[in-house]
Amino acid sequence: MDVDKDTNVSGVELTEAENELYDRQIRLWGLESQKRLRTANILISGLNGLGAEITKNIILSGVNMVKLHDDKLITEEDFCSQFLAARESLGSNRAEASLTRARALNPMVDISADTQPLKEKSSDFFKQFNVVVISGESNKELQRIDSICQELGIKFYATDVWGMFGFHYASLQKHSYVENVFKHKCISKPNEKVKYETISTPRQCEVEYPTYINWIDFDITAPKYARKLKRDGPGILLLRILQVFRSEHKRDPSYKTRESDITLLKKIRDEVLPNSSLSNEALELLFAQISPAVAVVGGVVAQEIIKVVTKMEAPHRNLFIFNPETCIGYVETIGVR
Amino acid sequence: MAAAIDGVLPATLQEFVKKSKVLVVGAGGIGCEVLKNLVLSGFTEIEIIDLDTIDLSNLNRQFLFHREHVGKSKARVARESALSFNPDAKITAYHDSVTSTDYGVNFFKKFDVVLSALDNRAARNHVNRMCLNADVPLIESGTSGYNGQVELIKRGLTQCYECTPKEKQRTFPGCTIRNTPSEPIHCIVWAKHLFNQLFGESVEDEDISPDAADPEALEATEGKDKAAEDDKEKNNDKEKNDKEKDNEKDSSNSNGNVVRINTRQWAKDCNYDADKLFNKFFNEDINYLLRMSNLWKSRKAPVPVQWDTLLPGGASSDATELARQHHKVWTVEECAHVFANALKELSAAFLKLEGSDTLVWDKDDQPAMDFVAACANVRSHIFDIERKSRFEIKSMAGNIIPAIATTNAITAGISVIRVFSVLQARWEQCKAVYARLRLNGRNQILVADAFFPPPNPNCYVCASDPAITLRIDTKRVQIKAFRDEVLIKTLNMVNPDLTVESTGSILISSEDGETECNEEKLLSEMNIVDGVILKCDDFFQNYELSIIIAHFDAEREDVLFEVIADKNQLQPKEEAKIPEPVVTEPSTRKRAANGTDATADDGPSTSKRSRPTEIKDDDDDEDCVVVEDEDDDFEEVVSAATDKLTVESPQKLVTKRKPSTISDVDEEITEILDSSDEELAGPTKCKRTKLEEPQPATSGVEVINID
Known about the structure:
Distance between the termini of chain A: 28 Å
Order of helices and strands of chain A: HHEHEHEHEHEEEEHHHHHEE
Family (chain B): Belongs to the ubiquitin-activating E1 family.
Shape of chain A: globular
CATH topology of the largest domain in chain A: Rossmann fold
Mean pLDDT of chain B: 77
GO molecular function (chain B): ATP binding; metal ion binding; SUMO activating enzyme activity; transferase activity; ubiquitin activating enzyme binding
CATH topology of the domain at 2-162 and 404-448 in chain B: Rossmann fold
Radius of gyration of chain B: 27 Å
CATH class of the largest domain in chain A: Alpha Beta
CATH superfamily of the domain at 2-162 and 404-448 in chain B: NAD(P)-binding Rossmann-like Domain
Largest interface: A-B, 100 and 92 residues
Largest sheet of chain A: 8 strands, mixed
Main location (chain B): nucleus
CATH superfamily of the largest domain in chain A: NAD(P)-binding Rossmann-like Domain
Structural class of chain A: alpha/beta
Low-confidence stretches of chain B: 219-260, 571-707
Pathway (chain B): Protein modification; protein sumoylation
Organism (chain B): Drosophila grimshawi (Hawaiian fruit fly)
CATH class of the domain at 2-162 and 404-448 in chain B: Alpha Beta
Oligomer: heterodimer
Mean pLDDT of chain A: 93
Strand content of chain A: 15-25%
Largest sheet of chain B: 8 strands, mixed
Shape of chain B: globular
CATH architecture of the largest domain in chain A: 3-Layer(aba) Sandwich
């Protein structure tokens, strides 16, 4: 039972203020995890509602540094879920508009903004981070950044929410973590009432995570996949449709052109997978980013980042889909033969 | 504010969001998140209620609050912060208890939906009843660590919050605490009682002194009849004489134990000398226990420790550095230092109090926590039990439920998504959802029930004519205790009236002063004996309940009453005495329920029922009751004990239970389901699945062959 002895946190000591502030979470994931969080640097690119949710959760957890990155401006639509930007910030840069409230969440975290377009960012920029989280980008750009992260050994997350539907994809290369294994041991004596004790033992695991291109290349129309698609629902199909929409139209469906965009979505649906079970109704809930759904996906993504940073528990491998109708969130493993 | 922008939401949903009135009960971890989601979705009529104020340890997740808000009202600060997200919302904040009579059924009727984000069972039970009565759909939520849960409660459609048995509180028999501890928690409970004996409010059942006589010797030689009882008394008297040597002017209470108040006086008389107190608790009392040889026949005997031997140079004057090492397991010597220093601080604070005021133990009060950590560890050392760090002891002693931002965000998100469905009356979309740490057998991390579990026909809250059987020692319970412990604390009523069914005479009145004279009377003195049926009515909750009395003679260590929701549960243990109405002659005298006492809010939940799927909200729920030892035969027993000793430790890695019956989602262990089992019928079934062997290391992640 050799447990990964990470040397880089052995010198870290939490201050009394940190111990107090993080008390309730240290009781859950332990001191070692909290120290690991303390050394983590995270990039959040895309300060839409989802970016704001992830940012909030990550800052509250007590990481070392968070970089808020966006070159877009705050629009009316952002006020459906982007609570880090004040009303007055309409028209200003989304990352910069989020700074004040982000910092107020936890003064112990180093938070800064960057407004240079992602396209202009080279591998030098990404080096400083342990985890990179990107939303609102095209598959092409996501793939480019994932490759950079591969080279640098950085953990990569692509995530998005359209209306009430959302996903994340984890590209973590080789990831090692510890998980607790529970076993039952009978502790009662022969003549007594049977009693068991649950014993937890840590176990070291190492798992390979497929790159993002595996999702781009993934064929959801394959007959072999049909049974799974039927069982888990059409969420994965919806993701494909929305990403096709984004690359074809260089934008997401807009509430301003609601009806015509729904028509466009239906068209893509029927092209991608004719006779699918994806209902018209599901296409009604894909506009802007709706706060409660963003909270769910943003909460899941932030928890995944925490798992990755603390090396505790298995991160989702690798595609997570949230179905707002049932509120079921499930994970599919893409790209593993 | 999604609903304020045309085209974002489908038109019907947009209308509902714009015009609906929503009540949020609780502005803690889930409440903050819910409020944010509501204002951003475009709800404009929101009311929020919370009686709590902001604490530093809330700030890692209750993101509407910042450092400068510590000490202020949660509801009010949450309102201010949420308004900055959407200045167009109308939010009314109440810094108040939801069980206050200001919020009656008519208050609840104002709302289209209620979201409860509470951290304790008493308030949850109350909100459940109010929503059932007002016929308002309730979205009930809770989190604990990585686990979260959201469920709809709607009259006639779903189970109510009280339909399912609640998780049992972990409880310990008093004699284990006093004489034969075997786990760290026993020593921690003992240390808290010691604190109360020296500085806190006197509680009769919290005596820390060893039993006066060997309880196991008595058991062996005596029957349970009255004569034996008398012997016991005599025996105790004799033993008591031995104890006089301990320089205590002991008197004996009816249980034969040393009356605690004398320990307090004695400690004061010797000026809280650390040396003397330490030796009494950890040497003399232990030596006394050792004399009861029966106790140690099958147990390892304790080894007393002595102050002079541990600390030949006396206690260091400053142990504050030491006490700050929260994660270190202190040595016994270090514990003695911490003990001495904490004793000094506590006694100084105690002596400054006026009149009969006492200190209140609080996990966040440094010397109080130091004292308990040190004493628990010294006692653990004596009994050869593993010692714990101050940090771990605080978890157990303070019953702290770990809480993180992400679980709260996910849970609150699901709650508000459910609100959307509720407003559109899409009930089939409102099945309960659980957030988990690990994937289930179908690779789900957010799991939904496959169906609505039907209401429990025996539920003593939502059944059409609810009734319970109450096993109670009518010769030992007074009317006042019946009201406070049974009706208010256990059955969660707020301001009950109690009458005898056959005669209509009033035992307890909700009107001030009407039945005061009954308060000190025993039930039996009021002719409330086996078989009598009582009618209880809480006008405020609009809740009526029949209570069938089943008398039993409680043993000393027994709880004095148990609520049995399902009559069939009575059979195995009792010759079911189904009431053949006894002729009663109830008093016509009046008695009063003290109106001011009547708010049960935040009182510890004393329920022994277990609600398999329940989880609490993140806050520091002080729910902690020590009742009798685990009694697995009585799953349906809802009950309280007079013996409020204990603590439930929320985060134990070592839990005792039967693996084959694990059905709760709020235990880490249920997370390990065999993920290779793909063909389970549905999520509900998955949850109830028997625990399988954990997956082998290589399949830490399930691989689905897709291509």
